Amino acid sequence: MSDTNVHACHVYNSLYRWSSVGCRFINREGVQTRSCDNSNSPTLSFCMKFLSGLWGINNDLMRKYLLLLFTIGLFTGCNDYDDGKLWDSVNDLETRLSVLEKQCKEMNANIESMKVIVDVLQSNDYITNVTVVTENGVEIGYKVDFKVHPSITIYHGEDGKAGETPRIGENGNWWVGNQDTGVKAKGEDGGQGQTPHIGSNGNWWIGTEDTGVKAKGEDGVTPVIGIKQDVNGIYYWTQKIGDGESTWILDSKGEKIKATGEDGQAGETPYIGSNGNWWIGTRDTGVKATGEEGQNGLTPSIGNNGNWWIGTEDTGIKAKGENGITPQLKIENDNWMLSVDNGASWQNLGKAKGDKGDSFFKSVVNNENDLTLELEDGTVIKLPKQQVFSITLDKTRFSDVLPSTSYEVNYTVTGEEGQRSNVEVIAPADWKAVVQRTNDRGGKIVVTTPSFVTDSKIIVLVSDENGGNTLMKTVTFLKGKISVEKTGYTVESGGEVIDVKVETSIDYVVSVATEDQSWISCETYPGEGKFTLTIQPNSDPVFRYATVELVNDGGFVLEKISITQKSAAVKEIHVETAGTLETLVSTEELNGYENVKITGRLNTFDYDYLKLAKDLKRVDLSDLDMNTMPASAFSGSSLQTVLLPKNLVAIPSRAFYRSKITSITIPETVVEIGEYAFCSCNQTSGNLAIPGNVESIGAYAFEYCTFDGELTLASLKLKEIKEYTFSGSKFTGELVLPLNVEKIGDHAFANCSGFSELTLNENLLSIGEHAFEKCSGFEGNLVIPDKVQTIGEKAFYECTGWKGNLVIGKNVISLGDDTFTIGGPSFETIRPLNFSKIYFKSVTPPSGLYNALCSYNHKLKYVAVPIGCKDAYMRVFSNHINVIEEIEF
Q1: Quick one: DSSP state of residue 296?
Q2: How many whole angstroms separate alpha carbon 258 and alpha carbon 239?
Q3: How far apart are CA 624 and CA 583, in angstroms?
Q4: CB-hemisphere CA count at 13 Å for 725?
């Protein structure tokens, strides 16, 4: 073969080349190392495996390379070369890989869901809501919400069946099996025609036409992971490979793997047995729940080792089961791989099918009173939608409790009509607890504290009339006080830093479970009334959940905080129905574009879906047919540029929090910017303009942004710059406040060292604490307008750039400590800022004046006061002024 017959691109310094009549692998000296002609052509899969192994690149990248090679081969090959079969292979491989990736994602989601289901089966939890999950209008599963456990999504796709592979018939049309679709494989004049693809219903589609023919699956297997209860009552993981029998999944020691926690238990709840003792599971602890003559007995508690303790006795029984091992599936080199050791090793289950294969769930029936799941092996699981009965308390925590004081807790019992229940209370020694029943369904519990109070709990027990079921609730009494600003957070998949504000008089530590420390870290700030939780990005295809506890020195849980974390050439996409973006384009396709323009309507799910495309850099939303965005729309997003909708009214809270945007243009129609909207956007640069219609900017909105250009506050409707709004930003140039701003909040511009000049507006009334602290770039004069009444402590602390004059308006009545000073930390090292002259227009010296300006070792250079006011100011400053004069203002 001559060199002129060897075509296609040269990759990696011409190390290998593709031939139009086969594939040859030729080294730099021109020696053929491997070849295959048309009579013994390698499959595309073989070439992918050979090249990926040779070059060390993955299948996704290899797929792109081969498509490029094939395309060049089509246009540069011999005239008599038939490319139809080649394109059949390419299209079939692309669609089959897409189906397998989606299938693997859904299977792993089902496995994660099954962990929750097993725990629900062994607790008193129940379903609160079932939502149908659809794709292209077809039901594909359910989202299930529980009272206590995290929500799950289960997919119940139909069994995959073998279908047909499209081919080009003699008439030039696409044929599927023996059916002529009538669609040309090539356009007129040799142009490209329609390409077959597999739709969400598993059929072959050509263009917008559903052929009704199932897509053909490759020879191979589809694993089905399930659970089964063994004779010992414990659930274990099972697997079924292809048409084989269902078998137990075994670990490296050949032992079955529990789907539940340690000892197969999800944890046991103490209850009172018929003999009046505490029972845990099937074990009688021998400890009386109630003492002699009605005296209170010992109360179960959870010890530091996670076991139930009664008094000083460790029962050895876990209060909560450890997490079991969860099987994981992935596709590698076209094969199904299974791991049962958290990804440390993988077992090859065989070649992957291209169809859906057997479903994880044989059937899912959403009944009125339960959700019935039938597994592949015939196992039937019923998840109740409500408990037989339950009890609700209107209060479960009391703070700042006083000795010898009574506290009331109202209770309500729900259950089947006519069902009777019994409510009992167990309290610590010296505490008194009385149940005052109003009727069979409710009443109140009166708890009286002893003369000496410690942190304690009472236990409320409710049992049905037959004594067969007992539920337990606890009410906590704290000697001190603790209040958490928010007890539940939902975090975007890109991660987030959460500031948790705490008001408390109790020493506490923040406890993060060991298994959650890989994605949640904590930093405390003693004395500042807060701690931060740093949530790492979530790359898994499912939501993840954690509970962070605030615990005192005695191991007493003071508060719980729940964390839920949600699991890129211009491409134009029109979304007719909000929430359907993911059905129109895959994340892989989005990552293949640098810029995407989206029209139509979007909702929260669409914005969340966009954030999954980590390689997408630019999104144009300017022509969206809506004027709102959801909160945290691009929080944590890797997008660098976002063109906002032209008619946008509000930029919501955390809209771009900790995102990677590099610039932003706010539409003129925006009237509100939410709190944290652009906080910690540390890749921004250039100017920022706040339009004239903006009426409100939330706290922390631009904190720690890195804009290095000018800040333009054009709005005449803005009345307040809230706390930390621009703190830590890198703006340069002159800062001019809008005319109608009346209040500057605490830390509003703190640590903005790049500004060169400050102009305060004439309608300003107050300046908050630390408002301009460490804004060291300010030069020239500082003029406090006449309407300003109060200036908070350290408002201009360490603003070292000023060398001009300070003018303090005539209505200023109070100044905070160190308002105009520099230095520290000791009193002796503090000194006034470097103003040449200071003018006081008020006839009465403002309160706090001395501490705002003076120090022990430094004098003011020059002070001017209104005529007749010198003595009043001298009494304040004593001998800490070099020159003081009366002037007319």
Answers
A1: B
A2: 13
A3: 18
A4: 21
Residue with tokens 């308002």: 819
Q: How far apart are CA 370 and CA 51, in angstroms?
A: 52
Tell me the pTM.
0.41
Higher pLDDT, 280 or 201: 280
482-565 homologous superfamily: Immunoglobulins (2.60.40.10)
Cα distances from 696 to residues 90, 381, 673, in angstroms, run: 55, 52, 6
Q: 395: how many CB neighbours lie within 10 A of its CB?
A: 13
Q: Residue 465's pLDDT is what?
A: 64
Dihedral sign for Cα 48, 54, 59, 65, please. Answer: negative
Identify which of 785, 864, 851, 839 has the alpha carbon closest to the alpha carbon of residue 814: 851
Taking a C-beta distance cutoff of 8 angstroms, is the pair 780, 755 a contact?
no
- Token pair listed for 392: 């609700």
The two domains 389-477 and 482-565 share their CATH topology (first three levels equal) = yes
Confidence check: pLDDT of 653 > 70: yes
**Fold (topology level) of 389-477:** Immunoglobulin-like (2.60.40)
Instruction: Kindly tell me if the per-residue pLDDT of 765 is higher than 80.
Output: yes
State both tokens at 506: 């109790």
Instruction: Give the HSE-up count for residue 436: Cα atoms under 13 Å, Cβ half-sphere.
Output: 9
Vertex 510, ends 505 and 511: CA angle to 5°?
Answer: 140
DSSP string, 386-450: S-SEEEEES-SEE-S--TT-EEEEEEEEEESTT--EEEEEE--TT-EEEEEEEETTEEEEEEE--
For 512-531, what is the HEC assignment? CCHHHCCCEEEEEECCCCEE
Cβ distance 786 to 810 under 8 Å? yes
- Give the Cα separation of 164 and 552 in Å (integer): 66
Q: Is the dihedral of CA 212, 218, 220, 224 positive or negative?
A: negative
- pLDDT of amino acid 161: 35
What is the chain's mean pLDDT, rounded? 76
Residue 291, token pair as written in the block = 């003492």
Which residues partner with 127 through β-bridges?
146
Measured in residues, the chain has a length of: 889
Task: For 585-602, give the DSSP string.
Answer: S-HHHHHT-SEEEEEE--
* Torsion sign, CA atoms 549, 550, 555, 558: negative
Read off the pLDDT of residues 783-828 as tens digits, 9 standing for 90 and up.
999 999 999 999 999 999 998 999 999 999 999 999 999 986 666 7
Residues 6+ apart with CB under 8 A from 33: 25, 26, 27
Which phi and psi angles does 350 have, rounded to 5°?
120, 175
| Domains of the chain by residue range | 3-81, 100-176+194-266+323-386, 268-319, 389-477, 482-565, 757-765+778-785+794-889
pLDDT in tens, 130-149: 777 766 556 677 788 877 67
- 2 CA to centre of own chain: 59
Distance CA 227, CA 237 (A): 4
Task: Read off the DSSP letter of residue 578.
Answer: T
Q: Is the pLDDT of residue 414 over 50?
A: yes
- What Rg value do the Cα atoms of the chain yield, rounded? 35
**Beta bridge mates, 37:** 22
CA 863 to chain centre: 55
Q: What secondary structure does DSSP assign to 280-295, as a single string? A: ETTEEEEEESB-GGG-
- For 252-261, give one letter per residue: b (16+ CB within 10 A) or e: eeeebbbbbb
Closest CA to 272 of 300, 306, 311, 294: 300
In angstroms, the CA 553 to CA 536 distance is: 28
